[in-house]
Each structure stands twice: as structure tokens, then as C-alpha cells.
Amino acid sequence: MNTKAKLLGAAALLSVAMPALAQDQTGDARIALSNNYAGNSWRQAMLESWEKVGQQAVEEGTVAAADTFTTSENQATEQAAQIQNMILQGYDAIVVNAASPTALNGAIAEACSAGITVVSFDGIVTEPCAWRIAVDFQEMGRQQVDYLAERLPEGGNLLEIRGLAGVFVDDEIHAGIQQGVEENPQFGIVGEVHGDWAQDVAQKAVAGVLPSLPEIVGVVTQGGDGYGAAQAIKAAGRDMPIIVMGNRQDEMQWWADQRDANGYETMSLSIAPGVATLAFWVAQQVLEGADVPKDLTVPFLKVTQDNLDEALASTPDGSVANVEYSLEDAKAVIEEAQAQ
Amino acid sequence: MSSRFRILLPVLSLAVLLAAVFYMQPRAMSYFGLNLLFNLAVPIALATVAQMMIIMVNDIDLSTGTFVSFVACVTATFLNDAPLVGLLILAGAIAVYAALGALIEARQLPAIVVTLGMSFVWGGLAVLILPSPGGSAPGWIRALMTAKPPLVPMAIVASVLLAAVAHFVVMRTSTGAILRAVGGNARAVSRSGWSVIRLRAGAYALAGFFGVLSGITLVGLTTSADANIALRYTLLSIAGVILGGGEFTGGRVSPVGAVIGALTLALAGSFLSFMRLSPDWQIGAQGAILILVLAVRLVFARNGRRKEAQHG
Amino acid sequence: MHFGAVRALDGVSLTIRPGECVGLIGHNGAGKSTAVNVINGGLTPTAGTVTYRTTGTGAASARAAGIRSVFQELSLCPNLTVEENLRIPQRDLTGPGWRRRARQRIADALDTVFPGHRLQPRMTVGDLTLAERQMVEIAIGFAEGAVPARLVILDEPTSSLDASIARQLLDHVRDFCNRGGAVIFISHMLGEVFDVATRIDVMKDGRITDSRPRNEFTQQGLIDAMGHVATAPAEARKETSAAERIGDEVLRTDEGLTARRGEIVGLSGLAGHGQAEALARFFLSRSKGRRHARHPEVVFVAGDRGRDGIMPLWSILRNATLTTLPALSRRGIVDREAEDRLGADWKKRIGIRTDNMNNPILSLSGGNQQKVLFARSLASTAPIVVMDDPMRGVDVGTKREAYEMIRAEAAKGRTFLWYSTETEEVCQCDRVFVFRNGRISAELTGDEIDEQHILAASFEMKEPAE
């Protein structure tokens, strides 16, 4: 996948128009969502998006059912049992956000051998017979540095806020940021703190490290930590650097306030919970017989100065910016993967 | 409550639940369906039998879940890559269990504390062996777990076999009788010249053995492991033993009941899933099923006692 | 043989030959159980030897010599079946077919000892009545095994059997001895002992004081033989005229236990004949409700300190003021100063030997721990004090002090219910109820309170029913 295509982002995908083809081929197909966890706002938004798109698809006769199942405990064995139940219930496709990349493989192999299409997303599975819609977290880190390079061609010092230590996602985004800095040597990372993807943790961590830092021009983040960083920097009385945000409502609200007050400008990106709907359409496409590569990539949902107000208005308090994907978006993602 | 009566209620609750599942999902009433419904219950049943061995001697094992996870990690790595090393590690794990039993008896420690501590040890070892999810199941165990015997699906064959073996070991052999006696009246046992330390170690070793089997079969089903794969098993296994007619004290356990209890719990999960119950209610509903069965048991037990009083 | 500072057995010489049935009798703490445990190898004597038919000492050689014990407290596993319980003492029951052999042996034994019984070897012991369990236990004692039973020790074997079953047992014991077996028969039913024993050994204070063939004893002679030779009559009791301080009746229970204001009422009889239960029942019936915490009507002094007395991790002060805490607190907050004052007061009054009441309770000796428990109860305002063998393991000096304390409190109008296994303590009381088989068998007052009367009431005198 080339970088340029990615840079287009989700907003660009929306503009790709494709004629809808023979949707009635899957009119009696039943798709189920197997979800391992529903305890945070991202997952809640994800389930809402699925319900919304699924219901509409059922009404339009695209599919016969789009049911959701969430396990009561975030445990792989329970989810494996849930998937086996879905096989029994006769679903044609199962869309999975998995509790473990490997522990569901047995159940997913059972599903595949029963002729069921399995599409995993977000929490993907390694079983080869399943489709994977993965997030390219490295790319997420790299794009932040690319954006800063665009805004600040002369470069400068950066502060990096990392996530929860020892977690795969943190390592990946961090690697992407390092790669970005290597590609743009005018930047240098002068400080690194763990914000655990939480505003309060990030605020404390940044406030603690600030006094020892030289002037910083930009803050690269992992999402959920931008607002806390801004509060800490403001409290220290420093000039506000460009803080790359992570689509959280409080982050975008602060950004909008600053923009109105002093024309502050930045960028925000993250994965939209609506990625579940992308998986839904991919499953529908597989059922329809389309040639879909096994490995697909989730496009990022980017919020820019231009669509900030729009994104803010549609995001509830305490939640994260979301978008529901359409069949056309799915086809674009598939085409992009095919093109590789 | 006699032992024959003890087994009646678990059988009945399994039958009722099974009937309900068949009614809601007729597809389950097939070779294929029964296998799907029950194959993930096999490792749970093994873990439940392991827990039963501990409850049999009046203790409780809070490390079952992490121990099975640990075994799963060993199975997916060492047992697959270097079978001999893997077997040695698993044998060592059983020896550790036996040593724990001896320690608990010799120092009169509360098992609940010791096993709680051990749960962190097993969990830590599991993460050390398999820092990120992965590994793969040895071919033979995968073949065994996905075998398709004629007429009766593998899950049922395995469950029946397990129930028969556990029943034989615990209820029929003379050693089993002595082990249960430790739970019933340890003082009488030691007064007759038995070493309760050795007996408790034996019960724990049996628990370790069935725990190892649980981990191996689990990997056989999932094809790979993860350090947190079986955390639920601790509570599931305790619930399974109790649901199967066992009691926390007095060495009153039923191996057949424990297997049935484990199957019932697994089936209850499927039942609620078929009901399309919201996840917020599922844990509560599972608990409600458990309480219901235990309440029925209490009523039966009370009536039994009243009848006894009338006779006596 | 010593238990801590107490000499439990002292120069006991006991020889049991085949064909003998030895009746072993004696009052509480005479050393019967200790003697039995030395014989069966459960305890190792500190001096002296036990010789069996086989060589060696200890439990294993006792078993190899065919010594079987049927204990007073039930030693069956209620979760096992009758046949499985036989497996516990009989180690040869292993391998294929063990169950069949066990069933055969226990069924034979039951048929022999208790003909016409309705027990099945496959019955779970937990489902049996108390009498049936005792029958099983006796049958296990006599059952055939790898080593045949040569000496069976029966400790109160008939305590829960009805008369006809008990008769079957006595017949069997006689028969067993006639066939060359030996039996040690311990019972408080003197009639039974007379009925079955060929020789009667009387134990007192860890010694065998009398050992004669049965026909040389009379029942009254036995009672006399059991009594303490030198029991100092407790004159101190008469210091305050009982008539002066004893007032109106303050309690009366269903069993017939009565007590009046200012009276010290003793409960006596052999251990485990329902005294502790009677006290517990009475205490619980009077200690319910919310009012109880602040103004208790009854307080309890426990004898088994470890089980229901002290809080082992707490300080002496906290242990002493536990019962009085509600009275010491205002709006749910404990008044620390008042608590300290109370502690200091009682430390002085009963002489708790510590330099600081904040020391942990376990730093005290057993006797002083018991004093703290006394202080806890006596510091309350309760008019009735219930004491369950409160002097267990307490040295003589402390006992004296406690007697003084109790008498002083009684003089102030408190009523004491005092269960004791020691006759000397019971002799401190104004009135004594003797318990036997869970019932009051005698009420003694004034000069009747002496060892003779208590022993006579403790032991069943009549012949076992036909």
C-alpha cells in the first residue's frame, strides 16, 4: 500500500463512488458480530454503528440479519464458545473483534469448515481462513510526524506521549513515530512519557517532565492524551506547541476553543469505532462472491481544521469521533488491497 | 442426602437445559451440533474434576484458571517444539501441586491463601513462556480433539470417558476412599496410622494431573495459547463442582456430577447466547441459574432430612 | 506420662491377658483416655514401657498386635459408606475386589455383634442415626482383618445405644472374651461394667488405685473407690452465710436448672453429658436482641479460650473490655480514657500480671489469660454470669484467686452458673446439679455437695435393661 493512498484518508474514501451491484445476492444472508468487550465508549460507539448500519441493510434487503453478540466477560474461551454457538445458529458470516489473536483459532477453523465467512477487525485473529481488517498503527505514528513536517518545515524539538507500557499498540505507534523522525531529521524527540491513553495520567506525566525540557514545537500522541498534555503545558505557562490529537471529544473541544481564541491549528487522527461497519460490508462482499484479499487495512479517520466543527457536533461528550462506512468505502478498501 | 440422590439433580438440570437448547436451536440436535455445543466444555470438565480433587480434601484451589493457562502455554510451545522438555515441565508442575498439598497439611496453612499466591506464580510463568499470544498445538492433540468417532461426537465421548475414569479413581478404588476420608474426618484417618501429608499431596497431585489434561485439551481446541486463556476456569470449576452435587466441606463430592456440572455451566452460556440476552444481564442470568439449582437442592435436602426425622 | 505441667498417668501398671474383659472406671480426668491412648500407641509414655505380643512400640505395632480402639467421640467418615469406612483402619483392603471383601467383613461383623440389625454396607454413614453409627464403629472394631482383633478397647460404647442393642453388645463382648479375645470396657454405666467385666480397675489421679475381680466389688464399694481420699472440704464457702446473700429465683430452664440471686450454682457430672449444651442454650436464650449489647442480662466465661474466648491478636486491654464496649462508647465512638480506666481498675482487682495492658494477650500465661476473660465478664453489669469450665489449665494459685473473686461478686448479688469437671471447684458452689445423659440426675445442696454424692449421681447404678 503506498503512503500517498493512505494520506487520502477516510475523508477521501467517501468520495470514491462505485455503482452498487447485485445486492440481492446476499438478501437472505445472516451476519453476526462476535464482540468480546463492551465496557468503554469506543466499543459502545462501535456497537451503535453496527446496529445502525446493520438495521438499514436489513431494511433495504441487503442482508437478512445483522445481529450482535457480546461476551459477558472479556475471555477468549467464552468467545470461542460464542462463535461455536453462532455456527449452530446458522449464520452465513461472522464478524469478530477478538479477545485474543490466537485463542479463537480453533473455533474459527470450525466455522470456516462449516462454510462460514469469518471477518476479524480491530482485534484480529491469526487463523488463515479468516479475513483480517487490521489497523496499521505504525502508519498512525508516521503520519503524525509527516503532518508536523508539513507545518513546521524547519523542524524542532518534539515531546512524545506514549500509551500503556508493554502493550503491542504502544510499541507499534512508537516505532512509527521513530521511523517518521528518521525520515524527517529536522525533528528530534527530547522527551518521552507514558500517558496510558488517559487525560489525567498524561497531564501528570507531562507536567512532571516539562521543567527539564527545552522549548518544544510539537507533541506526538497516541490518542486520549492530547487534552491532558495541553492542560499541563498551559499550566506551565509555555507556548502552546502543535499537539496532534486523537479524535476524543474533549480534545476536539479544546482545539475548537483555541482555534476560536487564537487561531490554533492542528490535526487529529484515530480509528473510528465504525470500522465494525466496514467489516460488515467486507463480509457482505465476500458472501456476494467478490474477490477479497485476506488482509485489509483500516483507513484512519482524520479530523482537520476544515471538518472540526462537523466532527465535534456529531461526537457525544466523553466519546470519540465516529463514522459509519458504506458499501462503497468497503469496495475502495478492497480495491486498494488488490492493487498492492 | 445419599450419593445416588446427589447425582439426580445435576442430571435433571442438564436435561432441562439441553431440552431448552434443542427447542430453541434444533440444529444443535445433531452429531455436528452436539460437538459444537460441548467441545469447549471438555477442558472445563477436566478443570472441574481437578478442582473437585482439592475440594474433596476440604480445600479450595484459586489457581486452577492460571494453572490451566500455564499448561496451555507450555503445550503450545515446549510440548510442540521439544516434546520431552514439555513433558518434563508438565510432570514438574504436577510435582509442584503435590508439594503444595504436603506443605498445606504439614504447616496447616489455609489452602485458599496458598493457591491464591500460586495463581500469581502460574500466571507469571505463563507470561514468561508466552509473552504474546501464539504458539501452536501439537499435531497429535489437535488430531485427537478434532477426531470424528462414529455415531457419537468426540466431545461426548471425552466427557463420558472422563466421568468414568474420575468415578473409578475417586469412588471405586481403595485409595479414592481414603482420599475422601481425609475430607470426611482427617483425624480418624491419621489415627489409623495414615500419613495425611502424603494423602493430601496425592489429592493435589491428582488435581495437578487433571489440570494438565485440561490445559492440553484446551490448546487442542484453540490451536494456540495465550497467557490469559483460561482465567475463567477458577470460578467455573468451583461452580461446576457445587452444581454437580459436591459440597465445600466433608469430602462430599461426585465426579460424575462434577463433569455434568461443567457441561451444564457451558450449556447455560450457550442457552443465554441463544436467548440473545444482553451481555449486561448474562453474568447475572448465569448466576441466577446456579442459584436456582442450588436452591432446588437445598429444598430437596431439607425434605430428605424431614423424612429421615419422621422415620427415626 | 505428662501433659504440660499436669501428670496424666503416674505409675500405671496394667496387664491384659487373652480372655479378660477389664472394666476401667474413674472420674473425669482420672487418666482413662490417656491410658487407652498409651495402650494403642497413640501416645508415647515419657517413662515406662508398653509391651505387645509383637515386638516394638508405637501405633503400628499396636495395630500389628491386634489392638483396636472404638473411641467415645465418633471417628467415622460421614461422607463414606459403611464398607468404605472399614478401609480406613484396615490397610490390607486394596487392589481389585477390595470393596467386596470389605463388604463381607463388615456385614459379618455387624451380623455377629448386632444380629437383626438393618444396616447395609453400602449405606452412607452420614445418613445413619447416631446409634447406627455407633454400631458401625463397634462392628469395625470387631471385624475380621489381616490382623484379627485381639484386644478391643471400647470407650463409652453404649452412650447412644438403646438398651436392647447395648445388651447385644454386652453379650458379644462376653462371647468374644470366652473365645480368647480381650476387651477394655470403659463406661459410666456401672451396671454394664458389672455385667460384662471379669476384672475392674479403678483409676484415680492418673493411678490405678484398685484392681480386683468383679465379684469382689459392690457398686457402693466402687463409688467409694473412685472418690478422692483427701478432698479438703471447702470451708471458705461458709464464710458468708448463704442464707444472707441468696435472694429470689432469677432463672429456671426447661431442664429444671434453677438459680437464685446471689447464688453460685454448679453443674457437674461426667464430661460431655450435656452441661455445656445446657449452659449454651440458656445463654443464647437470654442474649438475643439489641438491648443485650448495652445492658447484657447474661455474660459468658469460656473455658476453651482458644475457641471462644480470647482474640489472639488483640491487646490485653481490648480483650478485657470487649463485652463492655457498648457501655464505654458514646455515639458509636469508644471512649479511650474510660477504657483505660476500666482496664487499670481490673488489672488491680484481679491481679493480671503484666506491666502494660497494651501488651498482646498471648504474652500472658494461660491462667492470666483466663483472668482477663473473667475481667471481661465481670466488668459488665450483667446480673448472671455463665461459666463453662473456666479454670481449665489454670494453676492452683489463680484458682484460689478466682474463687475469692466469684464469692465477692456473688455477695454483691450476682448469680453464677458454673460448669466444672473438677469436683473441688464444684464444692465451692451453693447448689449443684449433676448431669447424666443430657438430663439432671440429681440436685445437691448444702452438705450433700461432696464427691460421694456427685459420683453416685454421675454413674448409672441400675442394671442394664433386659
From TrEMBL, chain A:
CDD domains: PBP1_ABC_sugar_binding-like (cd19997). It is found in: Cell envelope. Keywords: Signal. The keyword Signal applies. One of its GO terms (cellular component) is cell envelope. Transmembrane segments: none annotated. One of its GO terms (molecular function) is carbohydrate binding. Residues 1-22 form the signal peptide. Its main location: other. InterPro entries: Peripla_BP_I, SBP_2_dom. Residues 31-290 form the Periplasmic binding protein domain. It comes from the Bacteria. The keyword Signal applies. PANTHER family: D-ALLOSE-BINDING PERIPLASMIC PROTEIN-RELATED. Belongs to the bacterial solute-binding protein 2 family. This is D-ribose-binding periplasmic protein. The gene is rbsB_5.
Automatic annotation (TrEMBL), chain B:
One of its GO terms (cellular component) is plasma membrane. InterPro entries: ABC_transp_permease (IPR001851). This is Ribose transport system permease protein RbsC. The chain crosses the membrane at residues 7-25, 31-50, 85-104, 111-131, 151-170, 201-223, 229-249, 256-275, 281-300. Keywords: Cell inner membrane, Cell membrane, Membrane, Transmembrane, Transmembrane helix, Transport. It comes from the Bacteria. One of its GO terms (molecular function) is transmembrane transporter activity. The gene is rbsC_7. It is found in: Cell membrane. It is a multi-pass membrane protein. It holds the Pfam family BPD_transp_2. Its main location: membrane.
From TrEMBL, chain C:
Its EC number is 3.6.3.17. InterPro entries: AAA+_ATPase, ABC_carbohydrate_import_ATPase, ABC_transporter-like_ATP-bd, ABC_transporter-like_CS, P-loop_NTPase. Residues 1-230, 237-462 form the ABC transporter domain. One of its GO terms (molecular function) is ATP hydrolysis activity. Keywords: ATP-binding, Hydrolase, Nucleotide-binding, Repeat, Sugar transport, Transport. The keyword ATP-binding applies. CDD domains: ABC_Carb_Monos_I. The keyword Nucleotide-binding applies. This is Ribose import ATP-binding protein RbsA.
